[in-house]
Amino acid sequence: MPHHSPSWVLKLTMGLIGMFAFLQVYSVQAILPVLITDFAATEVQAGMVVGATVLAIAIMSPFLGMLSDAVGRKVFIVGALLFLAIPTALIAQSPSIGWMGVWRFLQGLSVPGITVVTIAYIGEEFEGRAVTELMSFYVSGSVLGGFMGRFLLGHLHELIGWRAGYYVMAAMTLLGALWVTKMLPASRQFVANPNFRSAIQTLGEHLVNRYVVTSCLLGACVLFSLVGCFTFINLHLADTPYELSTGALANIFAVYLLGVIITPLSTTLLRRFGSARTVRVAVVVSMLGVLLTLVAPLWGVVIGLAVMSSGVFITQSATISYIAVNVKKGRSLASGLYYMGYYAGGTLGAWLGGIAYARGQWSLTVWLLLFVQVLALLVASMGMIKTKPHAA
What we know:
The protein is 81% helix and 0% strand. By secondary structure, it is mainly α. α11 crosses α13.
């Protein structure tokens, strides 16, 4: 099984796991202007409703990785999907922006049980090209989930209201859990490691491992940019002169679908150029996209978002492949640390992006994003060991 090309059912299942993991994470972005009105909230409060889920993912990622090393893979993925449906349904009952933040935080607690453990599962069960192939389907699925969450909720709000929309999303998550239960093969290569002392020792090794540390820093910069950009562009486009509705804002997120196409192509780039060079080029592309969003016509902003997100998706795919290929011991813990850095960056993006938007609107937010992307370039240039192209 590890040496053969994965079946289309397994590829589809990996894509669906990625999709359902991220269906809820950013869904609220499409309705931020509505929430500011409904709950009389500030821009920073609205940003932190996005950041609450991201913060919970950052906190839980390393711990769920360690727990999964002791318990197993498939049971964790299915259990996390089932748990995720509960706070998703409870969001519909939110009496205030604060309570909505609480339920969003609870959503985030379960997401690493899907994301971190899936990456560890792929790294254990497969080798060589199959790892890169399945990883690209998983990342493509996560990109599709990021788009679907925003797209569905924006349009569901116009049809039935955002509260009823969250009940629909909860039902979809339950269906996803049933599919994974039926279709994901049980682990064959997993070896339980319930020794907590051993896990702490592995954690210590990872914290001084150049591959892990560089990936964590790069991940933080990547999600800072993505969350900061795609959260506050909504407020920018809902304001004059654009004045877009939630449905129109949801349609803007169609640029995310480029990531579904771009991410599998990144596999080819990685094989040809290696991780370090691919990441540097992708970050520069992303910076150009951010600058394009300052163009006044709506079509210019949309092209900028498409270019920016494409660069981010290639960077993300290259970074998690970099971990999967170079870290052999304590894989789920390494993935957990990566996601901790990644989502900590996202939380900062939601918070600092809110402050920047409140003080200087979209133009100041853009300069903040560019500053962080310059940091990402420095990390990739100085930190990444130049792996041989075929190894990435």
